[in-house]
Design goal:
The longest helix has 17 residues. The protein contains five helices and no strands. It has a domain of 64 residues. The protein is extended and about 70 Å long. It is mostly helical. This is High-affinity branched-chain amino acid transport system permease protein LivH. It is a multi-pass membrane protein.
């Protein structure tokens, strides 16, 4: 469902949709963002997308080594934290704070 909403926002942003815009490499990049952030973690997916969108921009000056650095960082990430950045973080306490009702006095 979230992917559908993201696709709708993307279509609105670029104002033109074409099947050739969604190549295998684009699908692979989106999948890596989700895995990097943490499977089963919506905030992790957002963080993974943010990191993997900003990282190529930061490595722009190292154009000839950019993909090597990008790949090395991905391998290190998978070895050090295979569940993703926020894969094991429990966000139940946030739900309790946001959705809790204050009880009035009787």
């Amino acid at each position: 469902m979230i992917a559908g909403v993201a696709g709708a926002f993307y279509a609105q942003y670029i104002t033109y949709i074409d099947p050739s815009s969604f190549t295998y490499s684009a699908s692979q990049e989106m999948l890596v963002m989700v895995i990097f952030g943490g499977l089963g973690s919506i905030p992790g997916s957002f963080l993974g997308a943010l990191v993997l969108t900003v990282l190529p921009e930061l490595l722009r000056d190292l154009m000839e080594y950019r993909m090597l650095i990008y790949g090395a960082l991905m391998v290190i990430m998978m070895l050090v934290k295979p569940e993703g950045i926020l894969g094991n973080v429990n966000f139940d306490h946030v739900k309790e704070v946001v959705f809790s009702r204050k009880k009035g006095e009787q």
